[in-house]
Design goal:
The chain has 168 residues and is of the alpha+beta class. The protein has a single domain, classed as Molybdopterin cofactor biosynthesis C (MoaC) domain (Alpha-Beta Plaits, 2-Layer Sandwich). The protein has 5 helices and 5 strands, in the order βαααββαββα. The protein has a 5-stranded antiparallel β-sheet with strand order 2-3-1-4-5. The chain is elongated. The two termini are 14 Å apart.
C-alpha cells in the first residue's frame, strides 16, 4: 500500500475497478468506544432509558448503516453481506478509567472488494445511536477510538492491528 487507489493519474476521484479481481471470502472487524458516566451505564444496563432497549436499537442502527455504506461514502462499492453483527461490552470504570461501552462490528461477505468501510460505518453509527438515546441523561459522553481491528481476504490477505503495531 504505497499509493492512493481512488484517484487517476490526473488526480481525479474514481471508483476503483474491481471487475478483474477474484471473488474471495472477506471479513472485517471494527471497534469503537463510547465513554459515559456510571449513572448512564447503569441506565443502559437496567433499561432505564425512556427510549427503550439502547443496545438493541444501536445494534439495528449499526447493521442498517453498514448495509448502506455505499450511500454514505461516495466511492464505496455496494456489497451484499453474508452476515453483519454488532456486539457490545459494558466496561465498568476502574483505576482512573471512566465507564465505557465497546462496540464491535463484524462484516462477512464473498466479493471482489473488502468490507472495512462497512464495519467502520456500522460501529460508528451504533455508537452515535447510543449517544442519541442517552443524551437526555448525559450530554458529556465521548465517542472515541474507532479503528479497524482486522480484515481478511482479497489480494492482501490477513491484516491484524496487533501484528501491524509490531511491524508485521
Amino acid at each position: 500500500m504505497n499509493e492512493f487507489t481512488h484517484f487517476d493519474c490526473g488526480g481525479n476521484a474514481v471508483m476503483v475497478d474491481v471487475g478483474g479481481k477474484e471473488e474471495t471470502r472477506r471479513c472485517a472487524v471494527a471497534k469503537g468506544v463510547i465513554t459515559l458516566s456510571n449513572d448512564t451505564l447503569d441506565a443502559v444496563k437496567n433499561g432505564g432509558s425512556k427510549k427503550g432497549d439502547v443496545l438493541g436499537i444501536a445494534r439495528i442502527a449499526g447493521i442498517m448503516a453498514a448495509k448502506n455504506t455505499a450511500r454514505l461514502i461516495p466511492l464505496c462499492h455496494t456489497l451484499i453481506f453474508d452476515s453483519c453483527t454488532i456486539d457490545f461490552t459494558m466496561l465498568e470504570g476502574q483505576e482512573g478509567q471512566k465507564p465505557r461501552i465497546e462496540a464491535v462490528c463484524t462484516v462477512k461477505l464473498s466479493g471482489r472488494t473488502g468490507a472495512e468501510m462497512e464495519a467502520l460505518t456500522g460501529v460508528s453509527i451504533a455508537l452515535l445511536t447510543i449517544y442519541d438515546l442517552c443524551k437526555a441523561l448525559e450530554r458529556g459522553m465521548v465517542i472515541s477510538d474507532i479503528w479497524l481491528e482486522e480484515k481478511s481476504g482479497g489480494k492482501s490477505g490477513l491484516w491484524q492491528r496487533d501484528a501491524a503495531a509490531r511491524g508485521s
